[in-house]
Amino acid sequence: MTYNLYYCDDAERILKGGFETKEQAIQGFHDVCRNEFKFGAYGFDLVEDKNVTRIDYGGNKHWFEIEEVEG
Predict the structure, then answer these.
(1) Burial 2-18 (b: 16+ CB within 10 A, else e)
(2) CA distances (Å), 60 to each of 7, 19, 20, 31, in order?
(3) Please, are residues 17 and 67 in contact by the beta-carbon 8 Å criterion?
């Protein structure tokens, strides 16, 4: 099983990494926020729907998704 982390907005979905566990993907979300966007995302909501977990933080214009992929 692989977990792909995507940064999303209404127009695009950008792959930010692939991970072996969902916990590693959540850590990858923290790393992207801290290292690329220069902020810590500590208050966030996980919304699970089938094989995709949406990570909402702050406003709803941008979000992250963790997609569970077979293989």
Answers:
(1) ebbbbbeeeeeeeebee
(2) 12, 25, 27, 20
(3) no
Q: 14-33, pLDDT tens digit by residue?
A: 999 999 999 999 999 999 98
The Cα–Cα gap between 71 and 27 comes to 21
Q: Where are the domains of the chain?
A: 2-69
CB atoms within 10 A of CB 31: 13
Q: Give the pLDDT confidence score for residue 64 in this predicted structure.
A: 94
Predicted structure pTM score: 0.88
